[in-house]
Design a protein that fits this description.
With 459 residues, this protein is an all-alpha fold. Helix 12 packs parallel to helix 14. The chain has one domain. The protein is 73% helix and 0% strand. The C terminus is likely disordered. It contains 22 helices and no strands.
Length: 459
Amino acid sequence: MILAGLILTALLGWLLLPRRLGASPVEGLALGFALVAFGVSVEMFLLGALGFLPPAWLALAPWGLAAAWKLKSERPAFDLHFHPAQLTALLGAAAALAVWAPYERAMPLTSQSWDAWAIWLFKAKAFYLDGGLGGYLSRSAEFVGQPGYPLLTPLYAAFLYDLAGAAADQSAKLLSPCFFLALLGGFHYVARRLANPLTAGLTSAMLALAAAPQRVAFELAGYADTTLSAYFVAAAGFLALWLRDGGRMHLVAASLAATAGAWTKNEGQLFLLAFGAIAALGLLRKKSAWPEWAIVVAPAAVLLGAWSAVRASYGVEAAGFSLLVDFQGDLFATALRSMLRKAFNVSSFQLSYPLLLGGMVVVAGLRAPLWAWTAPALALWQFAGALLAYATGRNEIQWWLETSADRLLVQTAPLALLTAAAAWGIWFESQPAMAAAPTAAPAERTAANQPDKRKRRKR
């Protein structure tokens, strides 16, 4: 039943996506899974805050009805044409699954993953068994599970438990590999739109085959870092598409993804600040009207405001700490050395972070517009935030780095590769002979891409 719930999440999400996005079936299932998982968690939170945690079938009902209504007027695209490089991405994803799926029923409980259970899945079990949020939140002082953390992962896992009819922890851990696949599909979509199918296929394969993202998604299943990275890359990619091509649809998708990231982990709330600043700069430059400002501000303000109010009503403090308080320079230097060593470890992250630097050099050299700086700016912002957190001395620095640095880098590795993909796309278009050559079959030039290219030629 949990597997059926995961499949339904992806399928309903794909059916709900606007066809003009031009997403392939694989990309659509990936983006759709991220959309409906976020939507179901919000639905369960809002109803749970009112004292009623809906059963799984009722939580899915609005999404099923909306998908059925949409099918009457617009059917999803079934175009299966692909560039040979895109096959590389599929093979990379298949290789990751082949290696990890047999691993002790795909993700065992280990001492390294204890936080995943204490912080994320324990909440899910409590919400499911209590049939509401109040039981856990009212007794949060008795637990060590960071009750002030956002609730996307616990609430969606509680939805899966209800489908299974039991707190099936071993099966619920499949949520993490599913978000890994959603990350790959969403990354491929935005990389293809920002660059071309060749670049998207190769960079997606690099992401799929990177050891650290695989380990976090499978061995440390239950953590929320893979989920967060999926929303980060969607938010950055759609924001870049909006800055480059316009289109309210892109801005809506970017805002929802950034809000979902903030609803996943505290690092997502830090990300939301930089996302909002870049979006505001774009809104000012485009002289946008109030609806566009509302699209950026309203989703996060409503959801996080509601969560803050619920926390306050139960006396639950927000998890986290001030990054610039108790700053210690020696700890900052130690963290910087360790983070750089880990980031440039090819066996863990492939060439993700060297390509981030290379992409930034290309973008600067070609004097690229603001949209090309979206992914690298957000990646560097998150990196700096992590260093400032380590510099507070909240925990013993070596233990803290060993248990969390890889996971923090996994959150931004897709942004590093997206920077390289966008830089390659800009460089490619700057070469007249190459830009004139076809990079994809006509069937791959989707309805979402063609109007955007006409707009760029006019400018």
